[in-house]
Amino acid sequence: MSAVAASTMAISLVMPAAPASAASPPNDNAADAVRVNPPENIKGSLVGATEERFEPRGFCSPTDASVWYRFTAAATGEVVAQLDAAGEMDATLELFRRTRSRYRPVGCEDTDKKGIATLEDDRLEAGEEYAIRIGRQVGSVAEKFDLRVLIPAPRPKPP
């Protein structure tokens, strides 16, 4: 092989294809929140979820992706929401009262070392719209989760 031929030899590298990114969940944006009818158990995922530019935020840990659920309170009283995050996902469970396009934070809880967050609030108002936001905490992996939304029976009133 001549010196000229050796200097023009091409090197071909085979690179593995980049993994396809997951599609965003259908309830990735607050406007597309999935309606729930408590009591209800929901299987969800933050895989492929994003965060909206002007997304409503509560006052728990910062998040960088979320999915949304909504319900109308059938009666004045209490709601209990429990999040069970799979794998190593650190997440935040938030409840908002929704009035037209505004979201007012009502409460929030971060997952504990077992991946569980339980939020209880006794300030539901009959006929009002509420939104539940599940957020992936900044720096955490995205995983699946189970969400339970319950409306406990009213506590008996003393005679």
Describe the structure.
With 159 residues, the protein is mainly beta. 3% of the residues lie in helices and 44% in strands. The protein is built from 1 helix and 9 strands. The protein has one helix at 3-7, and strands at residues 34-35, 40-45, 63-72, 77-85, 91-99, 102-110, 116-124, 129-137, 144-150. The chain has a 5-stranded mixed sheet with strand order 1-3-8-5-6, with no helix packed on it. Strand 5 (91-99) and strand 6 form a beta hairpin. It is globular, with a radius of gyration of 23 Å. Mean pLDDT is 88; it is low at 4-19.
Write the layout of secondary structure elements.
Layout (H helix, E strand, L loop, with lengths): L2 H5 L26 E2 L4 E6 L17 E10 L4 E9 L5 E9 L2 E9 L5 E9 L4 E9 L6 E7 L9
Parallel strand pairs: 1-3
Antiparallel strand pairs: 2-9, 3-8, 4-7, 4-9, 5-6, 5-8
List segments where confidence is low: pLDDT < 50 over at least 5 consecutive residues. Answer: 4-19
Strand segment tally: 9
Would you tell me the structural class of the helices and strands?
mainly beta
Strand order, main sheet: write it out: 1-3-8-5-6
Oligomer: single chain
Q: Mean of the pLDDT scores?
A: 88
Beginning-to-end CA distance, first to last residue: 104 Å
Quick tags:
globular, five-stranded mixed sheet, 159 residues, mainly beta, 44% strand, four-stranded antiparallel sheet, 9 strands
Quick summary of this structure?
The chain has 159 residues and is mainly beta. The chain contains 1 helix and 9 strands.
